[in-house]
Records
---
Amino acid sequence: MSAHRADLEHTEVGELGEVAVATPGGRFAARVIDTVVAGVPGWLAAVLIWPDGSWVMRLLFTLLAVFAYEFTLVAVRGTTPGKSLLRIEIADLTTGGAPGPGDAFLRTLVFWAVPMTTLSILLIDERLRRGWHDLAAGTIVVLRPVGG
């Protein structure tokens, strides 16, 4: 059980008992740390894999590295280095244990899906105007020919 602080929201979480809920500031700081910890090596690997490649592919690879880092560590340990540094962990609300692979994957997917969909308009192949979702699916958005 965590030390009770009157300024924090508390709740019962499975076998953990009463615990303090992580603050938005702490969660944000942990996210920044984890993004740097996974993102920098991901970007460097992408540059090595695609030395003359598109910055879009490098960015997608980097985001995939951050996604895999978050998903894997939360599924196995319930925390990441950034979260751990700030004493934050992800727990199954019912049991209090680590979320497990299914819940960790869903949590990570939902977290990244909204901003990536929003940012996809910016992350495009300039010449063919393909967003990340087009690159992933092997698609392109075109104008229908007149009379077609």
---
Amino acid sequence: MERRCVLVPCWEIPDPDYCFQCGYWLTHCYIMNLEKVRELQQNAEQVRTGGKGTARRKKKVVHKSAASNDKKVQSNLKKLSVTSIVDIDEVNMIRDDGTVIHFKNPKVQASVPANTFSVSGDRYNKQITEMLPDILNQLGTESLVHLKKLADYAANQFNINGKDDVPGE
């Protein structure tokens, strides 16, 4: 016996003994109330976190994968038999756009046969100008060209303001 009626018990309709929707003489038959159907469909859309066949949840739980990624990286580094390099105070990685990725007191691991180096720790993104006095001996030719362009730009800005004369002359 297939029932086609849903959501409102027939005892809430005027004649509870007979369902006009499906034609059965059952007191527990259900007939359709469109308002309740729409309301339940909206609730179902709000609580379903995935596609068809997934469980309905009150809120979508986002799993953090940073720890699992770190564990995977560390296990792969162990497979490469990396060794820790001690007494490194800082690591600076200079980008093409003139910014520097700066690590202070990093954990550096290396595997020379695998040509693999790992630098981990707290990183900071800085401009070359913020680190200028200390970073000059670490700059390569490409960075020096970028630094020269920056110095020319600063000199032009200084000359535009009309302060190119030496004071006292």
---
Amino acid sequence: MKTGSKFTALAFPLFAVLSATALQAQDGRVEGCRDSVRPAFVQPGDHYENRTRFNASDRRGDFEVVGVVTSACDTAWGVTSEPFPVPSGVRAFSLEFSIRASMDWYVVDAWKRWESLVEWLDGKGDIIGTTPFRPRFIRDAFAFFRIRGEIPAAARSGRVRFGTNAPNVGPGEKVAVRGTLVSFYTDLRHVPEGHLADAEPPVVRNDFDSPTECPDGPVRFRFEDAGGIDWSSVRVFRPEIGSEVKFAREDNGIRLLGIYPLAKGITRFRIEVSDMTGNATVAERLVCIGRKSVTYPVRLRDDGTVLVAGKPFFPIGLYGVDPREFNGFDIDRAFADLAKAGVNLAQSYNPASYNSEKWIKSAARHGIRLFVNGMLPPHLKTIAGSGRGYPHIIAWYLADDTASHVTPMQLLDRHENVNALDGTRLTCHADILFPHEHDFKVSRFSRYVDFADVFMPEIYPVKGGDKDR
């Protein structure tokens, strides 16, 4: 714990010392940890149609959730601790834990029924407040997280609940939480910004020219993190050949060594990096050796206006343009009808339509611009190939209902990789903000705001009676 220019060692269990070092009062004195408890996760909680199983804690973890179904299906689970007492006079807390899973990524879909949160109870055991949080983890590695917040004045006890509706827990897959600790603090009059905990993983940005016809690089990656990079954790791999890549540190990033000249086409890299508080990122990145797109650029003006070849473009568009019974199952007729109605932008959710040559060319014939799927590896092949040759494609669509399906770092991977293949269009994604029917307590947008060019809000529900429709 820091007191002036001196440090005092404190013998708190588990991660409590890490919490105490981040708190400093206005007069320079430190209010340390008043008390701490280790919640006992012994209640099974809510497991959708019993497709997952709760296992009691052992010395390696507080609990684990295991998929018990025999085939892939929809799952959702929640695990709640027994109530723990809140010491008298405390007003702040921190919750610290490590979490891992055998799935690729943990995506928190904060539905009320399975939301992760701390519940605060009064003397009668009634809930008087909640502190929602978003646990995350990377595959097959424990990552440390810390959540801080205020305790309601009338709270006499609390309980911790972990849960999520996505991703699905497949046959034999596991989610494990360990080292859970709740620490309590007295009131703090001031917490300098520089002392706030870093709860987000490092951001990995591309810092190289791609596509490029020069195979000699250099290939650089830049790291961004509020708490500082743990440079001993940085590793780079080429997954396709199973080899580790050497690198040199340069300021706030790295430059790859020993990989040049790069082969023509796409080269893949995996970058692993953690910050000083243990938050970890695994980034999957592409470098493209080849010709740049020859189409005119699409950009955003500072006021948000879309510029196509330097001229403003105001989009009037529709989702889901597909062959249907009302257009005679003729996509060309569909685009013709839309063009007559003044529509100038379109997209499709139908896998048989989007990214198909017929669909893309039909839109071009009728002067309708497109934003086209760029979510998955097959779509990236389209972007690197024929997709770059269509000037009426103005954006690549990275995610739909984003926070339900991908993490912020996955969205950033898609953004950076699409730009590495074709940096002449925009990247975009769509998500719901505060859907009342699902009772989200935390905005789904805020953690994704910096990782694509355009965000399209899904404003649900649409209210109003018949006369408003």
